[in-house]
């Protein structure tokens, strides 16, 4: 039997945390290893408890959720971070995803959606609530209409496919017979041309553009 998925809950409302805990504890294979009521506490608990997934609110005292997200992503590329918030505005969504959120779920969502989101991000796939997906689609449509998108080179498209398939820089370099530094340069050029600053949004762009199949 595999080890349970370790989840840390971060929300400044005790009743919200209690409700989320009850939901998660209905799913075999998930265990809530801790709860944090503010951003500073969350950073400390991630260090001491080493969770697999952090379920994170964005509006909190001391250190807000976006700051926590940025700090956690700089610490670890393997930790999964699922935003659970009331904020559906595009600016919140873009900032969270650009900071490295693996998923974005609204608190208005059904219980089953939260469980689905956790399953998806645990497997390395992004998950967004339908309203958030619609917001991202509008953003991607704007990017697709940009003349910069038409200026992608063949090699940049190959690197974009590799990013969307979850390949590491080293794996892409080996497949394309180029150096890791060249891969990093192409990735930087993609982000500049498409005005996209996160791997999650590059992946979504590649799927919408038909360069790779969706998860």
Question: How would you explain this protein's 3D organization?
Answer:
The chain is α/β, with parallel strands linked by helices and 215 residues long. The protein folds into two domains: 5-133, Rossmann fold (3-Layer(aba) Sandwich); 146-208, Orthogonal Bundle (Arc Repressor Mutant, subunit A). It has helices at residues 14-24, 39-49, 65-75, 90-98, 111-122, 130-145, 154-164, 169-176, 180-194, 199-208, and strands at 5-10, 30-36, 53-56, 80-85, 103-106, 127-128. The longest helix is centred in the middle third of the chain and has 16 residues, at 130-145. It is globular and about 50 Å long. The mean pLDDT is 85.
Q: Mean of the pLDDT scores?
A: 85
Q: Give the number of DSSP strands.
A: 6
| CATH fold name of the largest domain | Rossmann fold
Distance between the ends: 25 Å
Say what oligomer this is.
single chain
Which structural class is indicated by helix and strand composition? alpha/beta
Write the layout of secondary structure elements.
Blueprint: E1 5-10, H1 14-24, E2 30-36, H2 39-49, E3 53-56, H3 65-75, E4 80-85, H4 90-98, E5 103-106, H5 111-122, E6 127-128, H6 130-145, H7 154-164, H8 169-176, H9 180-194, H10 199-208
Parallel strand pairs: 1-2, 1-3, 3-4, 4-5, 5-6
């Amino acid at each position: 039997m595999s080890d349970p998925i370790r989840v840390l809950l971060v929300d400044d409302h005790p009743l919200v945390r209690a409700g989320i805990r009850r939901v998660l504890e209905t799913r075999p294979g998930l265990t809530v290893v801790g709860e944090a009521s503010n951003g500073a506490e969350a950073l400390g608990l991630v260090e001491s408890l080493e969770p697999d997934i952090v379920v994170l609110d964005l509006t909190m005292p001391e250190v807000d959720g976006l700051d926590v997200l940025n700090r956690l992503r700089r610490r670890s590329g393997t930790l999964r971070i699922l935003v659970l918030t009331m904020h559906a505005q595009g600016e919140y969504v873009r900032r969270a995803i650009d900071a490295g959120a693996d998923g974005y779920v609204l608190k208005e969502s059904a219980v089953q959606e939260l469980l689905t989101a956790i399953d998806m991000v645990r497997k390395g796939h992004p998950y967004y609530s339908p309203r958030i997906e619609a917001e991202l689609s509008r953003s991607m449509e704007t990017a697709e209409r940009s003349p910069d998108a038409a200026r992608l080179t063949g090699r940049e498209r190959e690197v974009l496919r590799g990013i969307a398939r979850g390949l590491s820089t080293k794996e892409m370099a080996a497949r394309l017979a180029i150096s890791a530094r060249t891969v990093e340069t192409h990735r930087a050029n993609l982000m500049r041309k498409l005005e996209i600053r996160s791997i999650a949004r590059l992946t979504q762009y590649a799927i919408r553009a038909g360069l790779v199949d969706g998860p």
